[in-house]
Amino acid sequence: MAKLILKYEASVLKEIPLQKAAISIGRTPGNDVVIDNLAVSGRHARVVLEQGYYAVEDMSSLNGTFLNSQRIRRSPLKNGDQIVIGKHTLIFQDEGGKPPPPPEDETAEATQPLSKMEETFVLDTKSRREFLAKATAIASEGGTTTTQEKVGCLTVLSGKTDQREYILTSKLSVIGKDAMASVKLKGWFAPKVAAVINRKEGQYTIAPSEKAGATKVNSEPLTAVRELQEGDEIVIGGITMQFHFRE
To answer: Which DSSP state fits 117?
Structure first.
């Protein structure tokens, strides 16, 4: 029988036999696997059995779900795979050893609004930032492109802003201290307009404003317009944000 082994660092916390078609993983009671950590979303991820194969699926969590050091939305599982959620690791064991299935179309799943007790803290540790830097692309296993346009998001990893996450649905998003800015920076030395993000046909570009080079993308000064990619880190003064897509 397939199972999950829940670990924290080197310690094995428990083993979870996969006796159901869907195993939910999250911080709040009611999940099949409860991980009591503020970096874990209330409904973070799930492991599902479909057509004889197991797959792991992220449930639009704030800090993301990682499979073998790669941030994923949905991906098939094979024996020995490691799922990282927050600071915990779930090792998938299935001695049946079936190969991954061919890619299938993904379907979006509606989620209920989060209550106050379900709010998740952005994990902001040095080890986590190093780990996120490696996640520059979402694994393409287990899914194909769909007609639904992806929406870009900015997650604040460190620094003072008025929100911890920004969903970039507008055609134009301004980053800065200005009252009209979409992403509002705080602090005496924050620029009024640091950068501008443009959205067109599912693609996002970022352009510098005011002082060229004040904004950095992946540690490189932003001096011209460039396209944003999954996992890009944007640094403005003491504020670090990460760009990613959500369906």
So the answer is: G
Say how far apart CA 138 and CA 66 lie, in whole Å. Answer: 9
Q: How far apart are CA 19 and CA 240, in angstroms?
A: 42
Q: Using CB atoms within 10 Å of the CB of residue 41, give its burial: 0 to 12 exposed, 13 to 18 middle, 19+ buried.
A: buried
Q: First CA to last CA across the chain, in angstroms?
A: 33
Contact 33, 54 (CB under 8 A): no
Please name the residue that has the structure tokens 């900015």: 154
What is the number of helices (H) and of strands (E) in the chain?
A: 1, 22
Query: What H or E segment, with its residue span, contains residue 170?
Result: none
Looking at the chain, how many residues does it have? 247
The one-character DSSP state at 185 is B
Q: Are 58 and 40 in contact (CB under 8 A)?
A: no
CA angle at 62 for the pair 60 and 67, rounded to the nearest 5°: 70
Do residues 196 and 173 lie in contact, with contact meaning Cβ atoms separated by under 8 Å?
Answer: yes
Single out the residue of 86, 106, 55 nearest to residue 246, CA to CA: 106
pLDDT per position as a tens digit, 42-93: 999 999 998 888 999 999 888 889 999 888 999 999 999 999 998 899 999 9
Helix (H, G, I), strand (E, B) or coil at 108: coil
Tell me: pLDDT of 103 over 80.
Answer: no
Statement: residue 148 has pLDDT above 60: no
The two three-digit tokens of residue 3, written as one number: 């199972």
